Amino acid sequence: MKKITIKTLADKKQRREKIVSITAYDYTFARILDQGDVDMILVGDSASNVCAGYQTTLPITLDEMIYHSRSVRRGVQRALLLADLPFLSYQASVEQAVLSAGRLMK
Known about the structure:
mainly alpha; TIM Barrel; 3-stranded parallel β-sheet
């Protein structure tokens, strides 16, 4: 199957085709989802609730999001991978946002 890109999604939108997105937090689920007809896989800050047992998404750290994102990345070959920046990892300044995004993408 062909790798999903931003252009792929834009083309699907223009053709009014459905875009399929789902959340994953680990390698195993990422592998399974990537083999299906999924366009995007999101590593959401909801990992705070689902994986760490917190009541809200606020406590998850950038380091924890990096861990989950790397795990999912290893399982994804086709789908476009998206990841949330956690609370207070980007709000203080543009510089902080760029540094946090850079760490997450590395």
